[in-house]
Write a structure and sequence with these properties.
heterodimer; A: 353 residues; B: mainly alpha; Four Helix Bundle (Hemerythrin (Met), subunit A); 10 helices
Protein backbone atom coordinates (compact mmCIF):
# COMPACT_ATOMS: atom_id res chain seq x y z
CA UNK A 1 0.00 0.00 0.00
CA UNK A 2 2.80 2.40 0.90
CA UNK A 3 4.66 1.62 -2.32
CA UNK A 4 1.50 2.29 -4.28
CA UNK A 5 1.08 5.71 -2.70
CA UNK A 6 4.74 6.55 -3.28
CA UNK A 7 4.35 5.64 -6.93
CA UNK A 8 1.24 7.78 -7.19
CA UNK A 9 3.05 10.76 -5.72
CA UNK A 10 5.93 10.31 -8.14
CA UNK A 11 3.54 10.30 -11.07
CA UNK A 12 1.34 13.20 -9.99
CA UNK A 13 3.31 16.22 -8.80
CA UNK A 14 0.44 18.09 -7.14
CA UNK A 15 0.07 15.33 -4.54
CA UNK A 16 3.38 16.38 -2.97
CA UNK A 17 1.72 19.38 -1.36
CA UNK A 18 -0.22 17.06 0.93
CA UNK A 19 1.54 15.51 3.93
CA UNK A 20 2.53 11.94 3.22
CA UNK A 21 0.96 10.38 6.35
CA UNK A 22 -2.39 11.85 5.34
CA UNK A 23 -2.07 10.24 1.93
CA UNK A 24 -1.23 6.88 3.48
CA UNK A 25 -4.22 7.19 5.76
CA UNK A 26 -6.54 8.11 2.88
CA UNK A 27 -5.21 5.22 0.81
CA UNK A 28 -5.76 2.76 3.67
CA UNK A 29 -9.28 3.98 4.36
CA UNK A 30 -10.12 3.95 0.65
CA UNK A 31 -8.78 0.42 0.20
CA UNK A 32 -10.75 -0.84 3.19
CA UNK A 33 -13.90 0.91 1.97
CA UNK A 34 -13.53 -0.63 -1.48
CA UNK A 35 -13.09 -4.11 -0.01
CA UNK A 36 -16.02 -3.58 2.34
CA UNK A 37 -18.28 -2.37 -0.46
CA UNK A 38 -17.25 -5.12 -2.84
CA UNK A 39 -17.76 -7.88 -0.27
CA UNK A 40 -21.09 -6.39 0.82
CA UNK A 41 -22.37 -6.39 -2.77
CA UNK A 42 -21.10 -9.94 -3.27
CA UNK A 43 -22.83 -11.01 -0.05
CA UNK A 44 -26.13 -9.58 -1.27
CA UNK A 45 -25.67 -11.59 -4.44
CA UNK A 46 -25.05 -14.72 -2.33
CA UNK A 47 -28.23 -14.19 -0.34
CA UNK A 48 -30.18 -14.07 -3.58
CA UNK A 49 -28.24 -17.06 -4.97
CA UNK A 50 -28.93 -19.14 -1.88
CA UNK A 51 -32.65 -18.61 -2.25
CA UNK A 52 -32.51 -19.41 -5.95
CA UNK A 53 -30.43 -22.56 -5.37
CA UNK A 54 -32.75 -23.67 -2.59
CA UNK A 55 -35.77 -23.05 -4.78
CA UNK A 56 -34.49 -24.93 -7.79
CA UNK A 57 -33.33 -27.86 -5.67
CA UNK A 58 -36.83 -28.14 -4.23
CA UNK A 59 -38.42 -27.88 -7.68
CA UNK A 60 -39.68 -24.31 -7.36
CA UNK A 61 -38.43 -20.95 -8.60
CA UNK A 62 -37.42 -19.04 -5.48
CA UNK A 63 -37.78 -15.23 -5.57
CA UNK A 64 -39.35 -14.09 -8.83
CA UNK A 65 -41.25 -10.88 -8.06
CA UNK A 66 -38.66 -8.09 -7.66
CA UNK A 67 -36.82 -7.60 -10.94
CA UNK A 68 -36.14 -10.27 -13.54
CA UNK A 69 -35.94 -13.63 -11.73
CA UNK A 70 -35.91 -11.67 -8.49
CA UNK A 71 -32.42 -10.22 -8.92
CA UNK A 72 -33.35 -7.10 -6.93
CA UNK A 73 -34.71 -9.18 -4.04
CA UNK A 74 -31.63 -8.61 -1.84
CA UNK A 75 -31.88 -4.84 -2.24
CA UNK A 76 -35.55 -4.97 -1.29
CA UNK A 77 -34.65 -7.10 1.73
CA UNK A 78 -31.90 -4.66 2.68
CA UNK A 79 -34.30 -1.71 2.56
CA UNK A 80 -36.77 -3.66 4.65
CA UNK A 81 -34.13 -4.48 7.28
CA UNK A 82 -32.99 -0.85 7.38
CA UNK A 83 -36.48 0.46 7.99
CA UNK A 84 -37.50 -2.14 10.56
CA UNK A 85 -37.88 -1.18 14.19
CA UNK A 86 -34.75 -1.87 16.22
CA UNK A 87 -35.98 -3.91 19.19
CA UNK A 88 -33.81 -4.51 22.25
CA UNK A 89 -35.43 -6.91 24.73
CA UNK A 90 -36.21 -5.31 28.08
CA UNK A 91 -34.19 -7.83 30.07
CA UNK A 92 -31.26 -7.96 27.67
CA UNK A 93 -27.82 -6.74 28.67
CA UNK A 94 -27.93 -3.64 26.52
CA UNK A 95 -24.25 -2.75 25.89
CA UNK A 96 -23.27 -6.31 25.00
CA UNK A 97 -26.41 -6.81 22.94
CA UNK A 98 -25.50 -3.76 20.86
CA UNK A 99 -21.79 -4.54 20.41
CA UNK A 100 -22.10 -8.27 19.65
CA UNK A 101 -23.23 -8.04 16.00
CA UNK A 102 -20.54 -5.46 15.31
CA UNK A 103 -17.80 -7.75 16.65
CA UNK A 104 -19.04 -10.64 14.52
CA UNK A 105 -19.21 -8.36 11.49
CA UNK A 106 -15.74 -6.89 12.02
CA UNK A 107 -14.25 -10.34 12.56
CA UNK A 108 -15.72 -11.56 9.29
CA UNK A 109 -14.81 -8.55 7.18
CA UNK A 110 -11.34 -7.69 8.51
CA UNK A 111 -10.04 -11.05 7.34
CA UNK A 112 -10.46 -9.91 3.73
CA UNK A 113 -7.55 -7.50 4.20
CA UNK A 114 -5.04 -10.25 3.34
CA UNK A 115 -7.05 -11.98 0.60
CA UNK A 116 -5.08 -11.74 -2.67
CA UNK A 117 -7.50 -11.01 -5.52
CA UNK A 118 -4.52 -10.87 -7.88
CA UNK A 119 -0.79 -10.49 -7.56
CA UNK A 120 -0.99 -6.77 -6.76
CA UNK A 121 -4.65 -6.46 -5.77
CA UNK A 122 -4.20 -7.12 -2.08
CA UNK A 123 -4.72 -4.59 0.71
CA UNK A 124 -1.93 -5.87 2.97
CA UNK A 125 0.40 -8.73 2.13
CA UNK A 126 1.27 -9.72 5.71
CA UNK A 127 4.06 -12.24 6.05
CA UNK A 128 1.82 -14.20 8.41
CA UNK A 129 -1.26 -13.78 6.23
CA UNK A 130 -3.02 -17.12 6.64
CA UNK A 131 -2.31 -17.16 10.35
CA UNK A 132 -3.80 -13.68 10.63
CA UNK A 133 -7.04 -14.97 9.09
CA UNK A 134 -7.18 -17.81 11.64
CA UNK A 135 -6.69 -15.37 14.52
CA UNK A 136 -9.20 -12.79 13.32
CA UNK A 137 -11.88 -15.31 12.54
CA UNK A 138 -11.45 -16.90 15.96
CA UNK A 139 -12.58 -13.56 17.42
CA UNK A 140 -16.08 -13.89 15.98
CA UNK A 141 -16.85 -16.58 18.53
CA UNK A 142 -16.57 -13.96 21.28
CA UNK A 143 -19.20 -11.91 19.48
CA UNK A 144 -21.45 -14.94 19.14
CA UNK A 145 -21.19 -15.77 22.83
CA UNK A 146 -21.86 -12.13 23.72
CA UNK A 147 -24.97 -12.17 21.54
CA UNK A 148 -26.23 -15.40 23.02
CA UNK A 149 -25.67 -14.43 26.62
CA UNK A 150 -26.84 -10.83 26.44
CA UNK A 151 -30.13 -11.76 24.75
CA UNK A 152 -31.33 -13.30 28.02
CA UNK A 153 -33.06 -16.06 26.13
CA UNK A 154 -32.44 -19.76 26.65
CA UNK A 155 -32.48 -20.59 22.94
CA UNK A 156 -29.94 -17.90 22.25
CA UNK A 157 -27.71 -19.13 25.08
CA UNK A 158 -27.91 -22.73 23.88
CA UNK A 159 -27.03 -21.60 20.38
CA UNK A 160 -24.04 -19.61 21.62
CA UNK A 161 -22.77 -22.54 23.70
CA UNK A 162 -23.05 -24.96 20.82
CA UNK A 163 -21.37 -22.50 18.51
CA UNK A 164 -18.44 -21.93 20.86
CA UNK A 165 -17.88 -25.66 21.36
CA UNK A 166 -18.10 -26.27 17.64
CA UNK A 167 -15.82 -23.46 16.53
CA UNK A 168 -13.12 -24.30 19.06
CA UNK A 169 -13.16 -28.01 18.14
CA UNK A 170 -13.02 -27.42 14.41
CA UNK A 171 -10.29 -24.82 14.62
CA UNK A 172 -7.77 -27.62 15.20
CA UNK A 173 -8.36 -29.65 11.99
CA UNK A 174 -8.55 -26.34 10.11
CA UNK A 175 -5.15 -25.23 11.36
CA UNK A 176 -3.48 -28.55 10.64
CA UNK A 177 -5.03 -29.02 7.20
CA UNK A 178 -3.82 -25.55 6.21
CA UNK A 179 -0.25 -26.64 6.92
CA UNK A 180 -0.48 -29.07 4.00
CA UNK A 181 -0.46 -26.00 1.76
CA UNK A 182 1.86 -23.86 3.86
CA UNK A 183 4.61 -26.52 3.96
CA UNK A 184 5.21 -26.84 0.20
CA UNK A 185 4.88 -23.07 -0.25
CA UNK A 186 7.36 -22.41 2.55
CA UNK A 187 5.57 -19.20 3.51
CA UNK A 188 2.54 -17.99 5.45
CA UNK A 189 1.98 -15.04 3.13
CA UNK A 190 -1.12 -15.49 0.99
CA UNK A 191 0.59 -14.01 -2.03
CA UNK A 192 3.65 -16.26 -1.80
CA UNK A 193 1.42 -19.32 -1.44
CA UNK A 194 -0.35 -18.50 -4.70
CA UNK A 195 2.93 -17.71 -6.45
CA UNK A 196 4.27 -21.11 -5.38
CA UNK A 197 1.43 -22.75 -7.34
CA UNK A 198 1.91 -20.84 -10.59
CA UNK A 199 2.13 -22.49 -14.00
CA UNK A 200 -1.00 -24.52 -14.69
CA UNK A 201 -3.43 -26.56 -12.64
CA UNK A 202 -1.05 -29.50 -12.13
CA UNK A 203 0.97 -27.23 -9.89
CA UNK A 204 -1.94 -26.47 -7.56
CA UNK A 205 -1.49 -27.76 -4.04
CA UNK A 206 -4.65 -29.85 -4.30
CA UNK A 207 -2.83 -32.03 -6.87
CA UNK A 208 0.60 -31.87 -5.28
CA UNK A 209 1.94 -34.46 -2.85
CA UNK A 210 -0.80 -36.93 -3.89
CA UNK A 211 -3.09 -37.84 -2.29
CA UNK A 212 -2.40 -35.72 0.77
CA UNK A 213 -2.99 -32.32 -0.83
CA UNK A 214 -6.42 -33.40 -1.98
CA UNK A 215 -7.37 -34.93 1.38
CA UNK A 216 -6.14 -31.83 3.21
CA UNK A 217 -8.27 -29.64 0.95
CA UNK A 218 -11.38 -31.72 1.70
CA UNK A 219 -10.62 -31.70 5.43
CA UNK A 220 -10.19 -27.95 5.40
CA UNK A 221 -13.41 -27.43 3.48
CA UNK A 222 -15.47 -29.66 5.78
CA UNK A 223 -14.02 -28.19 8.96
CA UNK A 224 -14.45 -24.65 7.66
CA UNK A 225 -18.11 -25.39 6.92
CA UNK A 226 -18.46 -26.21 10.60
CA UNK A 227 -16.61 -23.05 11.59
CA UNK A 228 -19.02 -20.84 9.68
CA UNK A 229 -22.02 -22.73 11.12
CA UNK A 230 -23.35 -23.97 7.79
CA UNK A 231 -25.46 -27.08 7.26
CA UNK A 232 -24.76 -29.96 7.90
CA UNK A 233 -23.04 -28.33 10.89
CA UNK A 234 -25.61 -25.63 11.66
CA UNK A 235 -26.62 -26.88 15.10
CA UNK A 236 -25.92 -23.45 16.70
CA UNK A 237 -28.87 -21.98 14.80
CA UNK A 238 -30.90 -25.09 14.13
CA UNK A 239 -34.35 -23.69 13.32
CA UNK A 240 -36.23 -26.82 14.30
CA UNK A 241 -34.63 -26.99 17.74
CA UNK A 242 -33.45 -23.53 18.80
CA UNK A 243 -35.69 -21.04 16.92
CA UNK A 244 -32.69 -19.22 15.42
CA UNK A 245 -29.88 -19.86 17.89
CA UNK A 246 -27.77 -16.97 19.07
CA UNK A 247 -29.55 -14.35 16.96
CA UNK A 248 -33.08 -15.26 18.04
CA UNK A 249 -33.68 -11.88 19.70
CA UNK A 250 -32.12 -9.73 17.00
CA UNK A 251 -34.16 -7.79 14.50
CA UNK A 252 -33.73 -5.18 11.81
CA UNK A 253 -30.24 -3.90 11.10
CA UNK A 254 -28.55 -5.82 13.91
CA UNK A 255 -29.87 -9.07 12.50
CA UNK A 256 -28.61 -7.99 9.09
CA UNK A 257 -25.09 -7.72 10.53
CA UNK A 258 -25.16 -11.38 11.55
CA UNK A 259 -26.62 -12.32 8.22
CA UNK A 260 -23.99 -10.42 6.24
CA UNK A 261 -21.21 -11.83 8.41
CA UNK A 262 -22.38 -15.39 7.75
CA UNK A 263 -22.30 -14.98 3.99
CA UNK A 264 -19.04 -13.01 4.11
CA UNK A 265 -17.54 -15.91 6.08
CA UNK A 266 -18.71 -18.35 3.42
CA UNK A 267 -16.97 -16.34 0.76
CA UNK A 268 -13.90 -16.09 2.98
CA UNK A 269 -13.74 -19.89 3.20
CA UNK A 270 -14.11 -20.01 -0.57
CA UNK A 271 -11.24 -17.58 -1.06
CA UNK A 272 -8.99 -19.42 1.40
CA UNK A 273 -9.54 -22.74 -0.37
CA UNK A 274 -8.89 -20.98 -3.66
CA UNK A 275 -5.70 -19.38 -2.39
CA UNK A 276 -4.25 -22.40 -0.66
CA UNK A 277 -5.28 -25.30 -2.85
CA UNK A 278 -6.75 -24.08 -6.14
CA UNK A 279 -4.03 -21.81 -7.45
CA UNK A 280 -5.52 -18.49 -6.38
CA UNK A 281 -5.93 -16.04 -9.23
CA UNK A 282 -4.48 -18.30 -11.93
CA UNK A 283 -6.35 -19.64 -14.93
CA UNK A 284 -6.05 -23.48 -14.98
CA UNK A 285 -4.18 -23.71 -18.30
CA UNK A 286 -1.72 -21.23 -19.84
CA UNK A 287 -2.06 -18.84 -16.88
CA UNK A 288 0.22 -16.18 -18.35
CA UNK A 289 -2.04 -15.78 -21.40
CA UNK A 290 -5.04 -15.02 -19.22
CA UNK A 291 -3.24 -12.78 -16.71
CA UNK A 292 -5.61 -9.85 -17.35
CA UNK A 293 -8.51 -11.97 -16.05
CA UNK A 294 -6.83 -12.74 -12.72
CA UNK A 295 -9.13 -10.95 -10.21
CA UNK A 296 -12.23 -12.18 -12.05
CA UNK A 297 -10.97 -15.76 -12.00
CA UNK A 298 -10.23 -15.52 -8.30
CA UNK A 299 -13.72 -14.27 -7.49
CA UNK A 300 -15.30 -16.88 -9.78
CA UNK A 301 -13.43 -19.70 -8.02
CA UNK A 302 -14.64 -18.32 -4.68
CA UNK A 303 -18.23 -18.12 -5.92
CA UNK A 304 -18.06 -21.69 -7.23
CA UNK A 305 -17.02 -22.92 -3.78
CA UNK A 306 -19.81 -20.90 -2.14
CA UNK A 307 -22.20 -22.61 -4.55
CA UNK A 308 -20.87 -25.99 -3.34
CA UNK A 309 -21.67 -24.93 0.22
CA UNK A 310 -25.22 -24.04 -0.75
CA UNK A 311 -25.55 -27.30 -2.64
CA UNK A 312 -24.47 -29.19 0.50
CA UNK A 313 -26.91 -27.22 2.63
CA UNK A 314 -29.91 -28.33 0.60
CA UNK A 315 -28.66 -31.90 0.24
CA UNK A 316 -27.47 -33.11 3.62
CA UNK A 317 -29.38 -33.43 6.92
CA UNK A 318 -28.08 -31.78 10.08
CA UNK A 319 -25.68 -33.64 12.39
CA UNK A 320 -26.40 -34.33 16.04
CA UNK A 321 -24.15 -32.72 18.67
CA UNK A 322 -22.33 -35.96 19.50
CA UNK A 323 -21.89 -36.79 15.80
CA UNK A 324 -20.45 -33.33 15.31
CA UNK A 325 -17.79 -33.92 17.94
CA UNK A 326 -17.15 -37.40 16.56
CA UNK A 327 -16.45 -36.03 13.10
CA UNK A 328 -14.09 -33.38 14.41
CA UNK A 329 -11.99 -35.33 16.88
CA UNK A 330 -12.07 -38.87 15.53
CA UNK A 331 -12.25 -38.41 11.78
CA UNK A 332 -10.93 -35.04 10.65
CA UNK A 333 -8.16 -34.61 13.20
CA UNK A 334 -6.39 -37.98 12.64
CA UNK A 335 -6.66 -37.59 8.88
CA UNK A 336 -5.33 -34.05 9.11
CA UNK A 337 -2.31 -35.29 11.05
CA UNK A 338 -1.80 -38.05 8.46
CA UNK A 339 -1.85 -35.41 5.73
CA UNK A 340 0.68 -33.27 7.51
CA UNK A 341 2.93 -36.31 7.94
CA UNK A 342 2.42 -37.42 4.34
CA UNK A 343 3.17 -34.01 2.87
CA UNK A 344 6.33 -33.71 4.95
CA UNK A 345 7.40 -37.21 3.85
CA UNK A 346 6.85 -36.37 0.19
CA UNK A 347 8.80 -33.17 0.51
CA UNK A 348 11.65 -34.94 2.24
CA UNK A 349 11.75 -37.63 -0.48
CA UNK A 350 11.65 -35.15 -3.34
CA UNK A 351 14.28 -32.90 -1.81
CA UNK A 352 16.72 -35.69 -1.07
CA UNK A 353 16.29 -37.15 -4.58
CA UNK B 1 0.70 19.25 23.70
CA UNK B 2 1.85 21.65 26.36
CA UNK B 3 5.49 22.30 27.18
CA UNK B 4 5.34 20.37 30.41
CA UNK B 5 3.72 17.31 28.91
CA UNK B 6 6.32 17.29 26.19
CA UNK B 7 9.09 17.30 28.75
CA UNK B 8 7.50 14.43 30.67
CA UNK B 9 7.08 12.50 27.45
CA UNK B 10 10.66 12.97 26.38
CA UNK B 11 11.81 11.93 29.85
CA UNK B 12 9.73 8.77 29.60
CA UNK B 13 11.17 8.09 26.18
CA UNK B 14 14.67 8.44 27.57
CA UNK B 15 13.95 5.81 30.20
CA UNK B 16 11.87 3.39 28.12
CA UNK B 17 13.51 1.83 25.13
CA UNK B 18 11.66 0.40 22.20
CA UNK B 19 12.26 0.31 18.45
CA UNK B 20 12.98 3.62 16.87
CA UNK B 21 13.38 5.51 20.12
CA UNK B 22 16.08 7.78 18.73
CA UNK B 23 13.92 8.72 15.78
CA UNK B 24 10.97 9.56 18.01
CA UNK B 25 12.96 11.84 20.26
CA UNK B 26 14.43 13.55 17.24
CA UNK B 27 10.96 13.90 15.76
CA UNK B 28 9.75 15.49 18.98
CA UNK B 29 12.49 18.07 18.90
CA UNK B 30 11.74 18.87 15.28
CA UNK B 31 8.06 19.44 15.87
CA UNK B 32 7.97 22.86 14.17
CA UNK B 33 9.25 21.55 10.84
CA UNK B 34 7.37 22.61 7.75
CA UNK B 35 4.91 20.52 5.78
CA UNK B 36 7.54 20.00 3.12
CA UNK B 37 9.74 18.18 5.58
CA UNK B 38 6.82 15.97 6.54
CA UNK B 39 7.27 14.27 3.18
CA UNK B 40 10.17 12.37 4.73
CA UNK B 41 7.65 10.98 7.21
CA UNK B 42 9.27 8.84 9.84
CA UNK B 43 7.75 5.46 10.37
CA UNK B 44 8.61 5.75 14.04
CA UNK B 45 6.42 8.71 14.87
CA UNK B 46 3.39 6.67 13.89
CA UNK B 47 4.78 3.98 16.19
CA UNK B 48 4.67 6.37 19.12
CA UNK B 49 1.01 7.22 18.51
CA UNK B 50 0.18 3.55 18.14
CA UNK B 51 2.17 2.70 21.26
CA UNK B 52 0.32 5.29 23.32
CA UNK B 53 -3.07 4.14 22.04
CA UNK B 54 -2.38 0.46 22.62
CA UNK B 55 -0.84 0.88 26.05
CA UNK B 56 -3.53 3.28 27.27
CA UNK B 57 -6.28 0.93 26.17
CA UNK B 58 -4.45 -2.06 27.65
CA UNK B 59 -4.18 -0.35 31.04
CA UNK B 60 -7.79 0.80 30.81
CA UNK B 61 -8.91 -2.72 29.96
CA UNK B 62 -6.94 -4.19 32.85
CA UNK B 63 -8.44 -1.67 35.28
CA UNK B 64 -11.94 -2.38 34.05
CA UNK B 65 -11.29 -6.11 34.34
CA UNK B 66 -10.75 -5.82 38.06
CA UNK B 67 -13.37 -3.16 38.73
CA UNK B 68 -16.25 -4.55 36.65
CA UNK B 69 -18.96 -5.92 38.87
CA UNK B 70 -20.26 -8.42 36.36
CA UNK B 71 -17.82 -11.32 35.78
CA UNK B 72 -18.83 -11.56 32.11
CA UNK B 73 -17.73 -7.97 31.63
CA UNK B 74 -14.46 -8.76 33.40
CA UNK B 75 -13.71 -11.56 30.96
CA UNK B 76 -14.56 -9.39 27.96
CA UNK B 77 -12.37 -6.55 29.19
CA UNK B 78 -9.58 -9.05 29.70
CA UNK B 79 -10.00 -10.12 26.07
CA UNK B 80 -9.74 -6.46 25.07
CA UNK B 81 -6.53 -6.13 27.09
CA UNK B 82 -5.07 -9.14 25.28
CA UNK B 83 -5.90 -7.59 21.93
CA UNK B 84 -4.11 -4.37 22.89
CA UNK B 85 -1.09 -6.32 24.12
CA UNK B 86 -0.94 -8.12 20.80
CA UNK B 87 -0.79 -4.68 19.21
CA UNK B 88 2.23 -3.89 21.39
CA UNK B 89 3.88 -7.12 20.22
CA UNK B 90 3.27 -6.10 16.64
CA UNK B 91 5.01 -2.77 17.36
CA UNK B 92 8.00 -4.72 18.67
CA UNK B 93 8.06 -6.44 15.28
CA UNK B 94 7.14 -9.79 16.79
CA UNK B 95 4.26 -10.46 14.38
CA UNK B 96 4.13 -14.16 15.11
CA UNK B 97 3.72 -13.67 18.86
CA UNK B 98 1.17 -10.94 18.23
CA UNK B 99 -1.01 -13.29 16.21
CA UNK B 100 -0.53 -16.17 18.64
CA UNK B 101 -1.63 -13.81 21.39
CA UNK B 102 -4.91 -13.18 19.56
CA UNK B 103 -5.51 -16.75 18.40
CA UNK B 104 -4.68 -18.46 21.68
CA UNK B 105 -5.56 -15.99 24.42
CA UNK B 106 -8.32 -13.83 22.98
CA UNK B 107 -9.72 -16.51 20.67
CA UNK B 108 -9.53 -19.72 22.68
CA UNK B 109 -8.75 -19.21 26.36
CA UNK B 110 -11.11 -16.28 26.78
CA UNK B 111 -13.87 -18.28 25.14
CA UNK B 112 -13.37 -21.09 27.66
CA UNK B 113 -13.45 -18.51 30.48
CA UNK B 114 -16.71 -17.12 29.11
CA UNK B 115 -18.08 -20.63 28.86
CA UNK B 116 -17.35 -21.40 32.49
CA UNK B 117 -18.58 -18.05 33.80
CA UNK B 118 -21.85 -18.37 31.89
CA UNK B 119 -22.49 -21.88 33.12
CA UNK B 120 -21.91 -20.80 36.71
CA UNK B 121 -24.61 -18.13 36.28
CA UNK B 122 -22.81 -15.62 38.47
CA UNK B 123 -24.93 -12.67 39.50
CA UNK B 124 -23.71 -9.14 39.69
CA UNK B 125 -21.81 -8.49 42.88
CA UNK B 126 -23.38 -5.83 45.06
CA UNK B 127 -21.23 -2.82 45.87
CA UNK B 128 -19.33 -3.39 49.04
CA UNK B 129 -18.13 -0.49 51.11
CA UNK B 130 -16.00 -2.59 53.45
CA UNK B 131 -12.76 -3.94 52.15
CA UNK B 132 -11.96 -7.58 52.40
CA UNK B 133 -9.59 -8.33 55.34
CA UNK B 134 -6.98 -9.53 52.88
CA UNK B 135 -6.85 -6.13 51.13
CA UNK B 136 -3.70 -4.80 52.91
CA UNK B 137 -1.72 -7.88 51.87
CA UNK B 138 -2.83 -7.36 48.27
CA UNK B 139 -1.78 -3.74 48.45
CA UNK B 140 1.69 -4.68 49.68
CA UNK B 141 2.11 -7.30 46.98
CA UNK B 142 0.97 -4.83 44.33
CA UNK B 143 3.46 -2.25 45.58
CA UNK B 144 6.27 -4.83 45.50
CA UNK B 145 5.36 -5.67 41.91
CA UNK B 146 5.28 -1.99 40.99
CA UNK B 147 8.69 -1.52 42.58
CA UNK B 148 10.09 -4.43 40.57
CA UNK B 149 8.77 -2.92 37.35
CA UNK B 150 10.26 0.45 38.21
CA UNK B 151 13.65 -1.17 38.85
CA UNK B 152 13.41 -2.89 35.50
CA UNK B 153 12.59 0.35 33.74
CA UNK B 154 15.02 2.73 35.41
CA UNK B 155 17.89 0.51 36.48
CA UNK B 156 20.90 0.76 34.19
CA UNK B 157 22.99 -2.39 34.25
CA UNK B 158 26.73 -1.91 34.13
CA UNK B 159 27.21 -4.23 31.16
CA UNK B 160 26.59 -3.05 27.63
CA UNK B 161 22.90 -2.85 26.67
CA UNK B 162 20.24 -2.96 29.35
CA UNK B 163 17.31 -5.37 29.53
CA UNK B 164 15.02 -3.37 27.28
CA UNK B 165 17.72 -2.87 24.67
CA UNK B 166 18.31 -6.60 24.37
CA UNK B 167 14.57 -7.09 24.09
CA UNK B 168 14.30 -4.85 21.05
CA UNK B 169 17.47 -6.23 19.49
CA UNK B 170 16.20 -9.79 19.80
CA UNK B 171 12.75 -8.78 18.59
CA UNK B 172 14.02 -7.37 15.34
CA UNK B 173 15.86 -10.56 14.48
CA UNK B 174 13.61 -13.25 15.87
CA UNK B 175 10.16 -11.76 15.43
CA UNK B 176 9.13 -13.51 12.22
CA UNK B 177 7.60 -16.98 12.07
CA UNK B 178 10.55 -18.22 10.04
CA UNK B 179 13.14 -17.19 12.61
CA UNK B 180 11.12 -18.49 15.54
CA UNK B 181 10.86 -21.86 13.81
CA UNK B 182 14.57 -21.90 13.04
CA UNK B 183 15.48 -21.12 16.63
CA UNK B 184 13.06 -23.64 18.09
CA UNK B 185 14.32 -26.45 15.90
CA UNK B 186 18.01 -25.78 16.37
CA UNK B 187 19.02 -23.96 19.53
CA UNK B 188 16.08 -24.99 21.71
CA UNK B 189 15.28 -28.35 20.13
CA UNK B 190 15.27 -30.43 23.32
CA UNK B 191 13.08 -28.15 25.48
CA UNK B 192 10.76 -27.67 22.52
CA UNK B 193 10.32 -31.40 21.98
CA UNK B 194 9.85 -32.01 25.71
CA UNK B 195 7.12 -29.36 25.78
CA UNK B 196 5.39 -30.87 22.76
CA UNK B 197 5.43 -34.35 24.32
CA UNK B 198 3.87 -32.82 27.42
CA UNK B 199 1.13 -31.26 25.33
CA UNK B 200 0.62 -34.50 23.41
CA UNK B 201 0.16 -36.31 26.72
CA UNK B 202 -2.49 -33.78 27.70
CA UNK B 203 -4.33 -34.31 24.40
CA UNK B 204 -4.20 -38.10 24.71
CA UNK B 205 -5.40 -37.80 28.30
CA UNK B 206 -8.35 -35.68 27.24
CA UNK B 207 -9.30 -38.18 24.54
CA UNK B 208 -9.06 -41.08 27.00
CA UNK B 209 -11.26 -39.23 29.50
CA UNK B 210 -13.78 -38.37 26.79
CA UNK B 211 -13.97 -42.00 25.69
CA UNK B 212 -15.17 -43.23 29.07
Amino acid sequence: MRNFVDQLVNNYEFLETFPRPLLYLIAMVAASAIILGFIAILVMFFVWLERKVAGHMQDRYGPMEVGRHGWLQSIADGIKLFLKEDIIPALADKPLFVIAPIIVFVGAFSAFVVVPFSENLIVADLNIGIFYILAVSSLTVIGIIMAGWSSNNKWALYGAMRSAAQIISYEIPVGIALLAAVLPAGSLSMRDIVLAQSGGFWNWFIFRNPPFGFVACIIYFVAALAEVNRTPFDIPEAESELVAGYHTEYSGMRFAFFFLAEYANMFLVGTIVTTLFLGGWEFPIFPSAFAFLNPIIFVLKGIALVFVMMWLRWTLPRLRVDQLMYVSWKVLLPFAFACLFGVSAWMLLLHSA
Amino acid sequence: MSQKNERILSYLLKSIKYPGKQQITSCLSRRDTSVKKYASFKHEEKDLTAFLIFSTLAILGALLTVTARNPIYSVLFLAMTFLQISGLYALLQAEFIAIVQIAVYAGAIMVLFLFVVMFLDVKEIATEKNFHPIAPVCLILALVLLGEFLVFIFYKPSREGGLSETVTAVGQIYGTAENIGRTLFSQYLLPFEVASILLLMAIVGAVVLAKR
